[in-house]
Amino acid sequence: MKRFILIAGLLPLNAWAGDVDPQIFIGAKGGYQWAVDETYNHSAPHGAMWGIFGGLQFSPAWSWDVGYQYHDTLKAVRTSVDVDTWFIESALRYDWYVQDALSLYGRLGAAYWDVKKREPSYDELNANGFSPLGEVGVNYHISPNLRLSAGYQFIGSIGRSNTGQYDSHGGLISFAYTFGRATPPVLVDTVSSVEGSSEPVNERGVVESALQTFTFRPDSAGVFLGVDSSELNDSAIELLTEVAAVLNRYPQSRAVIVGHTDSTGSEAHNQALSEHRAQEAVNRLIDLGVSPEQLEWRGEGESAPVADNQTAEGRAENRRLDITIPRFQYQE
Question: Which residues, in sequence order, are CB contacts of 95 under 8 Å at separation 6+?
């Protein structure tokens, strides 16, 4: 079981975990559209469009939005027909991340439209209804809270028999701002284990940036190091070998090693002892082939106990090393 402690700890968080509160975002968009209508196929009307929107970001990948769009007057010059249309739209969006800040996205939803059509010698014609809406494009996170999207939007079958129907094809650029502490996604390999085997299985996943601490206590009593000692025992070396295997396999990964002591002795002595313990672990990892650039270490003395220093068992637990491996980006 000890063999799998590190591997299990590296399992990523779900990108849409239920315990993550949705975040509110607002934005604005603008672009240009072409109206495809068989009645005016000799000269497809076109014009500008703009809109505002807001919604909820459930995870780095999933969001839902609702907004308003106004399309500039479409003019069929040869027949002197003008069409004004506005929309209330709502869609579900999914972002597929190809890099930490770059994603491909798709939106699928519906739009409620209101059409006014004007023709010479005729009264103004009005119609309203619903149409399917789709959008695909590219998204870039300028910052954790601000994103820029550029895409193609399609709204089909706008209008009724009295006004005629047309399809709207448009190119859009939008900016969206997310309120609160937004955490951009980080691409990692999902590292899991097969029961009965120490070989990890890789699967591409999207997870939120996070830190997770793996604390290794090799023997059943929880004692990592002896009293006033920085010597690594066989169990500690075995577990550090597992850490080294991960660091060597993923050169872009990093590890932070922190030494701790119990409260026995002076504060200055315990600080120095904790640093020696961290150094011993770092030296062992380097001996196992890990690059020094992948390692950061420090000692925290007796300042961060995990158990009661008034008991022998508690002091034994406090004589330890903590190893932290930040989430890292991995690509084939």
Answer: 60, 61, 62, 63, 103, 104, 105, 139
Question: How far apart, in whole angstroms, are the C-alpha atoms of residue 179 and residue 187?
Answer: 23
* pTM for this predicted structure: 0.53
Alpha carbon 68 to its chain centroid, in Å, reads 27
Rounded CA gap, 237 and 314, in Å?
A: 23
Return the amino acid letter for 177: Y
Q: How many residues does the chain have?
A: 332
Residue 265 is classified by DSSP as S
CA 295, CA 121: separation in Å to the nearest integer?
80
Would you say 91 and 67 are in contact if contact means Cβ atoms under 8 Å apart? no
Question: Residue 150: which of 184, 176, 183 has the closest Cα?
Answer: 176
Q: Tokens 């007057």 — which residue?
A: 73
Residue pLDDT, tens place only, 221-238: 333 556 666 677 776 777
Residue 162 CB coordination number (10 Å):
10
Q: SS3 of 251, please?
A: coil
